[in-house]
């Protein structure tokens, strides 16, 4: 399948799709054991059009678990507190500083230093913990597969379609997305990891009568795993399948057919 929007925009990176499956594709690039950040695999699919795959057996953090719909990844209150401390100001945010330090002592030095200072996605422990508890949680499928939209097979229905866009491409898609709506708040920018933006937050939008695109990645950890493949001035815009089909339909009579757009295209 080809994207009409992508063709009109002459996009450098054409859309990719996220599919859930209980079977691991034989031709997919996948971690041999426990994987690192999944966004390095996503970036390879975007830039090199490789089919990539990530499974439950490759989970390395609770963020990926919830991001790809494999439960919360945080089995108890202690795990939630540890994650909330890390996502805020690390040891300075930890409600039990001694217990937090004890866990860091078992980590490699580079990892422990990162956890000591915290990722600082959230300003404080309380905000981080409340946000963690409010993440959309699903639990289904053994694998998440990424492939180019052009490689989608008959009968396959993606969970997410992921555009990778520069500022002008993003502007055009946002205008198309806004052109058939009356209310505000057309796009979501959840304070979430990159995998959660294209994953569970997009899954949640698929359940809505009025689904919205999800913009990302707004976490530098995820971006750091993509920058070898994707320029820093690109963003992802992830949409549920039904919204993708709607955008494709609306784009036939949109800003993309105007002389104003052509002045940017040339």
Task: Write a structural description.
Helix content is 39%, strand content 11%. It has helices at residues 4-9, 39-48, 62-67, 77-87, 97-104, 109-117, 125-133, 167-178, 194-198, 200-206, 220-224, 241-250, 259-265; strands at residues 16-21, 52-55, 143-148, 160-165, 214-216, 235-239. The longest helix is centred in the middle third of the chain and has 12 residues, at 167-178. Strands 2-3-1-4-6-5 form a 6-stranded antiparallel sheet. The protein folds into 2 domains: 4-62 and 138-265, no CATH class; 73-133, no CATH class. The radius of gyration is 19 Å and the shape is globular. By secondary structure, it is of the alpha+beta class. The two termini are 26 Å apart.
Secondary structure topology:
Layout: H1 4-9, E1 16-21, H2 39-48, E2 52-55, H3 62-67, H4 77-87, H5 97-104, H6 109-117, H7 125-133, E3 143-148, E4 160-165, H8 167-178, H9 194-198, H10 200-206, E5 214-216, H11 220-224, E6 235-239, H12 241-250, H13 259-265
Antiparallel strand pairs: 1-3, 1-4, 2-3, 4-6, 5-6
Provide keyphrases for this structure.
266 residues, alpha+beta, 2 domains, 13 helices, 39% helix, globular
Query: What is the succession of H and E elements?
Result: HEHEHHHHHEEHHHEHEHH
**Tally of contiguous helical segments:** 13
SS class: alpha+beta
Shape: globular
How many structurally independent domains?
2
Total strands: 6
How far is the N terminus from the C terminus?
Answer: 26 Å
> What helical percentage do the residues reach?
25-40%
Strand arrangement in the largest pleated sheet = 2-3-1-4-6-5
The biggest beta sheet reads: 6 strands, antiparallel
- Report strand %: 5-15%
Radius of gyration based on Cα positions: 19 Å
Give the assembly state of these chains. single chain
